[in-house]
Amino acid sequence: MFGRHKDDWKNDPLKWHIQFIADLARLLKPDVYVELGVHRAELFNQVLPHAGRLIGVDIDPESGGSMRASQKTRFVCSSTAEFVRELRADPIPIDLLFIDADHSSTSVLQDFHDFFPFVRQRGIILLHDTHPGNSQLVEPGWCGDAYRAVEILQEERGGFEMMTIPVSPGLTMCRKRSVQLAWMEPEEGEA
Question: What is the pLDDT, as a whole number, of residue 15?
Answer without folding.
Answer: 87
